[in-house]
Amino acid sequence: MNIHWRKKEIAAAFMFLMPSAGGFALFYVIPFAMGLVYSFQDGTPDGAFVGLAGYRELLASASFRKAAWNTALFTFMSVPLMIGSSLCLAILLNKSVYLRKWLRTAFILPLVVPVASVVFIWQIGFDWNGAVNAWMHSFGMERIDWMKSDWAIVTVTLVYAWKNMGYNVILFLAGLQNIPESYYEIARLEGAGPFTSWRSITMVYLMPTLFFVVLMSIIGSFKVFRETYLIAGNYPHDSIYMLQHYMNNMFLSLDIQKLTAAASLMVGSIMILVAGLYLLERRFRTFME
Amino acid sequence: MRRVTLLIVGFAMLLTMAACSGSGSNGSVGRNDIAIPDGGTGTESVRNEDKQPDRSAGVSPGETEKNKGGKKTIVLATGGSSDYFKEAKKKYEDRHPDITIQLKDYRGEGKLDESEYDKIVTKMNTELLSGKGAADLIVLDFLPVGKYVNKKMLVDLSEMMEQDSSFQKEQYYSNIWDNSKLNGGLYSMPLHFYMDFFWVDEEAVSKTGVNIDDKTWTFDQFIDTTKELIKKGSYPHGLLGISKTGALELLFQDNYAAFVDEAGRKANFDSDLFVRLLEQVNTLFDEQVMTENYEGLQGYFDFRASIRSIEDYFTYPVMFHGTGKLYQKPIAEGQQTGTYFTTGYNVGIYSNSAVKKEAWDFIKFLLSDEMQGSKNRQDQNRSYLMFPMNKATLEGQLKELLKEGTVKFEDMDGKVKTVNITEAGLSIFKQRIAAANKPLHQTPSQISEILFEEAKAFFNKQKSAEDAAKLIQSRVGIYLNE
């Protein structure tokens, strides 16, 4: 009886999953698998199998190595920055701050602004003749070419963090509100200070959310291409030349082999990163239990 | 349960984004870059290391299906709706009932902005790569031909010419084809062309007593001559109507090999040589050797002499600043003497096409006297006629013009003037067409684009020449090493 009911439930679950799984397969899984196949061929259509030649050529390209390095650097710079600042904001907003509701909305707003508009404001701010340079000039400082010097990566990181922080703040707020108030009360009764209760209660119970946010942010940081492409085109300053720039330019050169090889390598690296995170999370859970 | 949900959501997101960056990034694509064919001055030569087999013999199943039942279809992708190709289709189909020409406009009406242009190139690239929905014949004027040739997407038409015994190369201005080759083959075949000269105020020049031999002068000699003219003569300006980036391009092409080593994937823009080149452009403008403006100014030369028809050739000398002549543009050091030209209506055959022979026959029809003389070529892309490739067509036009004896035209002030057509003038004109061997391109290559963009910051005094040079070096370096 029980087994029968379970079977039915599984069948029902599959039924509900089918439409989205179908669409997902059609638009993402199958194309990616085809891309993987192309990466071992010498061209399209009707390429011959050439094994790892494409990957060898890819790794020999100095621009690819630069793009991979820049992307990794950006991820390791932007993710901690974004998580740190959004966690602080979430903790602050969780208290009864003046104008709390309005502030919450304000942090989420950048998320709904289209990238094109963000880029427009960005250009007004960080152009050679932009607002930031005008201020600096009025303070008697030298103007900086923000998007075409080593400052470019800093600028991109800041604007990227500003745009995407709101999402993390929401997730953290949800996580914070899930921690029962009684834990803090007991801790206070036991004589714990604010730092101790933050470390031993907030951080511990926020861990699952934190894992999720880190995961999402890492994946999200690979998507910064859109902004940099709209600002600086397909050959930007070399500090913000990302993997997607490389892949985009490879498509324009009709070099499908290098394009798919780069994409496969990138997915591979993300997979390893994410698998590592899940492993960590599992450890943490068993530790908690 | 929550953990499982989280896991599923997480992996779904991951895959979505990973897949997105793999295939989705194709959605937005940058400016094109079109190779400058041959002649050593190309800013993007074609890489030779491609070891792909020639797939020109391959026939994709989709292509054969549409040719069932004896009737064959040639799909022609045009850059804009063109009355010229509509006329050609109608006439050709009337004569060949077994062939249908299907016109497919990949460009649409009007001017393109960058994002629309990106979409066009993306779509075309996808079609060529997948072999599905791709045209058999493609008008390549707006497309990155150099890259298509690199990836063996186009058929070498010079081979087809040689194999076809009915095709007489001598009947055409084949020097244009010979000098439009890429990688040693003619992949993009011009059906028309126009020529570029320097306008010269010969009277003013002769007053100064300075001798100019426009057959052999190089850029350096041009600069020296102009300085001498300004010193000795009464005109304050040298070359009118040229921008600083235009001047930079001239000087850059002249020294291309010193700055770009494509085979070795090296750029040399952070060198003293390049910094000096940038500064030289500024000096030339400071010394009035070159001036961007032209209205009401007295200069010995004018840069704006693109000759697109025989009428242009005879009226341009007296169009702008009184009486003048057309001189051959200066050449690079060590280059052969010759006329600069730009091609138009460049067509290519897709290497996976199932109807290559038929497509070639249609190209031959486009080259026939009947189509080459068509007045329908004034479409929205080019509001002017260009010179035909077919010698007989041009000879016919020349004869007619000689019979009339004069050309009437309106000058810049709206006054109607007449120019006499002489046998001697025509024979110089013919020599100049025969000497056309230096291709110019309307669309700048990726390297020139980066060069112009960064050089502008220097010309606007935003940056020092050294800083601009460093930026060019790093950006071109990325391009070369991809």
What would you say this structure looks like, in words?
The complex is a heterodimer of chains A (289) and B (482). Chain A has helices at residues 2-38, 53-60, 62-94, 100-112, 115-126, 131-138, 151-177, 181-189, 194-221, 225-232, 243-252, 256-288. Chain A is mostly helical and 289 residues long. Chain A has a single domain (61-288), classed as MetI-like fold, CATH 1.10.3720. Chain B is of the alpha/beta class and 482 residues long. Chain B folds into 2 domains: 55-194 and 340-389, Periplasmic binding protein-like II (D-Maltodextrin-Binding Protein, domain 2), CATH 3.40.190; 195-339 and 441-480, 3-Layer(aba) Sandwich (D-Maltodextrin-Binding Protein, domain 2). Chain B is built from 19 helices and 15 strands. Chain B has helices at 2-23, 61-65, 83-95, 114-130, 145-150, 157-163, 174-178, 202-208, 219-232, 244-254, 256-259, 272-286, 310-315, 356-366, 369-372, 391-404, 423-434, 446-459, 465-480, and strands at 72-78, 99-105, 137-139, 189-200, 237-240, 260-261, 266-267, 290-291, 299-307, 325-328, 339-349, 387-388, 406-410, 416-420, 436-440. In chain B, the strands form 3 sheets. In chain B, strands 1, 2, 3, 4, 5, 8, 9, 10, 11, 12 and 15 form an 11-stranded mixed β-sheet that branches. A two-stranded antiparallel ribbon of chain B has the order 6-7. In chain B, β1 (72-78), α3 (83-95) and β2 (99-105) form a beta-alpha-beta unit. In chain B, α10 packs across α12 (272-286), α10 crosses α18 and α18 (446-459) packs antiparallel against α19 (465-480). Chain B starts with a helix and ends with a helix. Classes of the chains: A mainly alpha (289), B alpha/beta (482).
